[in-house]
UniProtKB/TrEMBL annotation:
<dbReference type="InterPro" id="IPR035681">
    <property type="entry name" value="ComA-like_MBL"/>
</dbReference>
<protein>
    <submittedName>
        <fullName>Excalibur calcium-binding domain-containing protein</fullName>
    </submittedName>
</protein>
<feature type="signal peptide">
    <location>
        <begin position="1"/>
        <end position="24"/>
    </location>
</feature>
<dbReference type="Pfam" id="PF00753">
    <property type="entry name" value="Lactamase_B"/>
</dbReference>
<keyword id="KW-0732">Signal</keyword>
<feature type="domain" description="Excalibur calcium-binding">
    <location>
        <begin position="317"/>
        <end position="353"/>
    </location>
</feature>
<feature type="region of interest" description="Disordered">
    <location>
        <begin position="270"/>
        <end position="309"/>
    </location>
</feature>
<dbReference type="Pfam" id="PF05901">
    <property type="entry name" value="Excalibur"/>
</dbReference>
<dbReference type="InterPro" id="IPR036866">
    <property type="entry name" value="RibonucZ/Hydroxyglut_hydro"/>
</dbReference>
<dbReference type="InterPro" id="IPR008613">
    <property type="entry name" value="Excalibur_Ca-bd_domain"/>
</dbReference>
<feature type="region of interest" description="Disordered">
    <location>
        <begin position="332"/>
        <end position="354"/>
    </location>
</feature>
<feature type="compositionally biased region" description="Basic and acidic residues">
    <location>
        <begin position="341"/>
        <end position="354"/>
    </location>
</feature>
<feature type="compositionally biased region" description="Low complexity">
    <location>
        <begin position="280"/>
        <end position="291"/>
    </location>
</feature>
<dbReference type="InterPro" id="IPR001279">
    <property type="entry name" value="Metallo-B-lactamas"/>
</dbReference>
<dbReference type="InterPro" id="IPR052159">
    <property type="entry name" value="Competence_DNA_uptake"/>
</dbReference>
<feature type="compositionally biased region" description="Polar residues">
    <location>
        <begin position="299"/>
        <end position="308"/>
    </location>
</feature>
Length: 354
């Protein structure tokens, strides 16, 4: 009997070394959809503290993306992913690669003769950043708590958009499908081979009707859909109708600015930094507080609290400070295009600070 008891105890202790994966999600995953105007930029902050930036928006958004990353206290990027070579995806990465230490740069492998692509590759070589070209179904070794799988990439495509890297992130029961510039033909290929069901869908081609087919959205069945675009080039009405038909709540960078999805792997919440109140997904807990904390007097430290950053697509004229703070919760400096002397009551060169 003593021998049997000893074996049982040993077995119980052994089981303790192998955690139950279904309950392993104890920390938060944050996925930020950065407002870069007509373009894509996504920051992933993993449960174990790693950082991945997927695309950097157009060149005009580069400094803003850098400031956003610094505001999140990021000093190093474990991965930077250029899903395709279009300027609205990689233009801003030039400033990012200059400003941060980057461990691995992932690209589609499709090459072209554009200046922005040449500039990006020049920085990668200069800083001796490791380059990786993934294959379909590759798993990116980012965080052991989650799975990031490549569902599409084609370095032999006829154009940069069709070479797009499509990624699916899975953290326990919550998943993200990031479509880059994949069109309907690519959507059909992916859904015919893989499970595309996802909690959050980042629609392809900024909501263009050349992507997000009814069949595809029906397969994904997202609870939330992210549309990243500039107000001058809004998403197609048919795309929004298809999302509504499957019960998805739509979030738009042109309206909500920066959009953050926070999840523990079971529940998720979605918050926005400005504009309209973010809608609540069917099974998600909602928070609508700005992503940046308000301070009594912002420090001029070069990040989002500096009062000089410009949100792409944001108005430059506001009726009052209440409206301005929806976009700039810390107020703005006199050098900012949204600054107006009527909002600077103490005449200190800072309008609408709290």
């Amino acid at each position: 009997m003593k021998k049997v008891a000893s074996l049982v105890i040993a077995f119980v202790l052994l089981i303790g070394f192998f955690p139950n994966r279904s309950n392993a999600a104890t920390s938060e995953l944050k996925v930020h959809f950065i407002n870069v105007g007509q373009g894509d930029s996504i920051l992933i902050q993993s449960p174990d503290g790693k950082n991945m930036l997927i695309d950097g928006g157009p060149k005009s958004a580069g400094k803003y993306v850098v400031e956003f990353l610094k505001d999140k206290k990021i000093k190093k990027l474990d991965y930077v992913v250029a899903t395709n070579n279009q300027e609205d995806h990689i233009g801003g990465l030039v400033d990012v690669l200059k400003a941060f230490t980057v461990s691995t740069f992932i690209e589609s492998g499709y090459t072209d003769n554009s200046k922005v692509y040449a500039d990006l590759n020049s920085i990668v070589k200069e800083k001796k950043i490791k380059v990786s070209v993934p294959k379909e179904l590759d798993k990116l070794p980012f965080d052991s708590n989650m799975i990031i799988r490549v569902l599409h990439v084609n370095q032999n495509a006829s154009n940069g958009a069709d070479a797009s890297i499509v990624l699916k992130l899975t953290y326990n029961k919550v998943s993200f499908l990031l479509m880059s510039d994949a069109n309907i033909a690519i959507e059909d290929q992916i859904r015919s081979k893989y499970d595309v069901a996802a909690t959050v869908l980042k629609n392809g081609q900024h909501g263009s009707n050349a992507s997000s087919s009814a069949a595809f959205i029906s397969n994904v069945k997202p609870q939330a859909a992210i549309l990243s675009y500039d107000k001058k080039d809004p998403p197609h009405a048919a795309v929004e109708a298809r999302l509504k038909n499957v019960g998805a709540k739509t979030y738009k960078t042109a309206d909500h600015c920066n959009i953050t999805v926070t999840t523990d792997g079971v529940k998720h919440s979605i918050s926005s930094s400005c504009g309209k109140t973010a809608d609540k997904p069917a099974t998600a807990k909602q928070t609508t507080k700005p992503t940046s904390k308000v301070r009594s007097k912002p420090k001029q430290n070069g990040n989002l609290s500096s009062g000089t950053y410009v949100i792409p697509g944001a108005p430059t004229s506001f009726k009052n400070c209440t409206e301005l703070r929806k976009y700039y919760p810390h107020g703005v400096k006199s050098s900012h295009p949204a600054y107006a002397s009527k909002h600077d009551r103490d005449k200190d060169g800072w309008a609408c600070e709290k």
